[in-house]
Amino acid sequence: MKRLDTADLLLKQGKYSEAIVILKELHQAYPEEESVLLLLAWAYHDSGATAQAVAYLEILLRRELQRKIFTGFAFDELVRIYKQEKNFPKLVEICSSAVAAQPDDIGLLNELGNAYLLAGRSREACGVFEKLVELENDNPAFYCLWGDALFAAGLTGESEAAYLRAAQIDPDQVDHYYFKISDLFAKSGNFDEAKRLLTACIATNPANPLYHCCLGDILVGLGRVSEAQDQYETAANYDKSSAGAYYNRFGNTLARANYHSEAVEAFRSALKTEPDNPFYLRHLALSFKALGLIADANNLSN
Predict the structure, then answer these.
(1) Which strand (E) or helix (H) includes residue 266?
(2) What is the pTM (predicted TM-score) of this model?
C-alpha cells in the first residue's frame, strides 16, 4: 500500500499532521486494517495528542480481546501510557477487561494486581495475587507479590506468612525474604517488627554488610544509636573497601533523625577513609550548621 508507506515516511520525518491526514483517509477506506490504526495511534502519540492515540489503541485492544490468542500490543501500549499519566482508574479498567478475556494469563493477572495497588485498591489486589499463588503455588515470587498486597491492605501477619512461605519454597534465599518483609515493616515505621525480622535475616547470612546497615537504620529509628553504630562498624569490617560509604550512610540516617552530634562523628569516620570526598564534606558541613556550628562548617571549605 503505497500511501501507507508515504505516511510512514512522513512520520519518520516528524511531519505528523500530514501523516495523520493520509492515515485517516486510509482508515476510512480500510477500517479493518490494523496497521493503519497502529500508525494513527503512533502519529497522534508522537505529536503530543495522547487522547486521540489512546482512542485508536482502545479500538485495537477491543479487537485483541476478541481473539483466542492474545497478542497484547495495544494492551502493553495502553498500560504504559496510563502508568505514565497516573491514570490508575483506566489502568484498572483495561487490565480487568484483559483478565476477563484471558482469566488464567499469569502476566495479565500480575498487571491487574499491580494496577489495583497503584489505584489504592489493595484488598482487590490481594484477591488477584492470591489467584496467582493458586495457579503456581511453588513460585516464591508470587508469594512475595501477595505479601506486598496483604501488607498494603493492613494484613501484616498474613503478609509475613506469605513471605515465610516463599522462604520455605526457596530455602537458598531465605535471608532475601526475611529482608524484604523486614523492609516493609521498617518503611511503615514499625521498627520493632522490622528489627525482629532483620535479626532473623542476619542469622541466616551474617556476612552481608547491607543487612547490618539496615539494622543500624532500624535501631536509629528505635533511638538505640549506640547499637546502631555497632551494626555499621560490623558492616565496615565485612567490607573495608566501602567503609566510607557505610559511615556516610550512617551519618545521613542520624541526621535525618536529628542526631546531628552523632552524625558529625559518623561523617568524620567516613572522611578518615576518603579525606577529600566532597559529598562527605558537604554532609558534615550540613550537620555542623544544624548544630549552629557555622564556623566549623565554613572551615571545611577553606
Answers:
(1) helix 260-273
(2) 0.85
